[in-house]
Please model this.
Amino acid sequence: MGPPILSWIAIGLVVGFLAVRFLPGREPGSRIATILTCIAGALIAGFAHQELGRYREGGSAGWIAATLGAVVMLTVYRLFMRGRENS
Model:
């Protein structure tokens, strides 16, 4: 089996939906943008994790990396969008 790209997308999707639902405050962008940002973060982290040689098929480390990547990307996105609103 190849790289779990669909798993990373699913993780980003779940993190995005949870972020839209549970993060406090007004969303700086659209809900779709938030979800897509989380998917992008999960994919980037998943690929980086794989390229570093830390990916093992069936292991949980790739899922953890994808989750953290989605959260980090969302945080950066929210900071960036808030900065643009204040300008």
About this structure: The CA atoms of residues 41 and 69 lie 5 Å apart.
